[in-house]
Design a protein that fits this description.
Shape: globular
Largest sheet: 6 strands, antiparallel
Strand content: 25-35%
Order of helices and strands: HEEHEHHEEEEEEEEEEEEHEE
Distance between the termini: 9 Å
CATH class: Mainly Beta
Helix content: 10-25%
Number of domains: 1
CATH superfamily: Jelly Rolls
Strand order of the largest sheet: 2-10-6-13-4-3
CATH topology: Jelly Rolls
Length: about 220
C-alpha cells in the first residue's frame, strides 16, 4: 500500500510509521489488540462525512480499555472515544498537553509537525512530514506532536479508536483568557488549534488561523 500511495502522491515524501523519522513524533504499541472495540465501531451507523466522540462509555466499560488506562496512560484518568471520517486534507493542526493514542482499523495517513516549529503564531506546512499507518496499528502521538484527523489511504474511511487524558476535546468550561499567549489557540479543553485559511469556515469563527503554505492533500489509492 505504501508504494501505491507514494505513486498516487508523487509530490509528497510518504514515510512509514516504522521509519526512524517517526521517533520524534510518537511510537507504536504492537501488543495492543481491540477486537471488541472493532465490533462496536463497525456497528455504528455512518450518517455523516465524519464523526467524533471523545469519550464513549460503552468502550470505557470493555476490558480492552484497561490496556490504555492501566498501561499506556500509567493509571491516570483517560478517555476512550472513536472517530470515523473521509478526510483528505490537513486543514489544521492541534496539540494537547498529553499523548494521543490512536488505533486505526483501516490504512491511514498522518500529517505531523513539531510544536517547536511554530514561530510567532505561524507554522509553515513545509516543515511537516507525512506518515503511512497500516491497518490494525496502534500509534501514540506525543504531546509535542502537531496533528489533526488522519487522512484515508484507500477507499475505506478512517475507522479509529482515540484515547487521551480525560476531558480532552470537550467544550471549554470558560472563555480562553489569561496571560498565556497560546490561549489564543485554545479551541476546546486541552486542545490548541492552528487552522489553515482554506479551512476557516469549516473550523468556525473561534479557530485561530495560523498555518501558512499548502493545505497538504492526500490522494487515496484507488484499489
Amino acid at each position: 500500500m505504501l508504494e501505491k500511495l507514494q505513486q498516487a502522491n508523487p509530490d509528497l515524501e510518504i514515510l512509514s510509521v516504522i521509519a526512524p523519522e517517526f521517533s520524534s513524533y510518537g511510537t507504536i504499541h504492537p501488543t495492543v489488540e481491540l477486537p471488541e472495540m472493532r465490533r462496536f465501531l463497525y456497528g455504528v451507523e455512518q450518517t455523516e462525512f465524519e464523526h467524533y466522540v471523545p469519550c464513549e462509555d460503552r468502550l470505557m466499560e470493555l476490558p480492552e480499555a484497561d490496556q490504555f488506562k492501566d498501561d499506556i496512560f500509567g493509571q491516570v484518568p483517560c478517555q476512550v472515544g472513536w472517530y470515523y471520517g473521509n478526510c483528505n486534507k490537513l486543514n489544521a493542526v492541534e496539540y494537547h498537553k498529553c499523548s494521543e493514542v490512536l488505533y486505526l482499523y483501516e490504512d491511514g495517513v498522518l500529517i505531523l509537525g513539531h510544536l517547536w516549529d511554530i514561530k510567532e503564531d505561524r507554522l509553515n506546512t513545509d516543515t511537516m512530514k507525512v506518515f503511512y499507518v497500516p491497518a490494525n496499528t496502534c500509534v501514540e502521538l506525543y504531546g509535542t506532536t502537531l496533528h489533526y484527523a488522519p487522512c484515508k489511504a484507500g477507499k475505506a474511511p478512517i475507522m479509529q479508536i482515540v484515547v487521551q487524558s480525560k476531558g480532552t476535546n470537550t467544550p471549554l468550561l470558560k472563555p480562553a483568557e489569561g496571560k498565556e499567549a497560546e490561549n489564543r489557540y485554545l479551541l476546546q479543553r486541552n486542545k490548541w488549534v492552528l487552522g489553515h485559511p482554506e479551512a476557516a469556515e469549516l473550523l468556525g469563527p473561534d479557530a485561530f488561523i495560523g498555518l501558512e503554505g499548502k493545505n497538504i492533500t492526500i490522494v487515496p489509492v484507488e484499489e
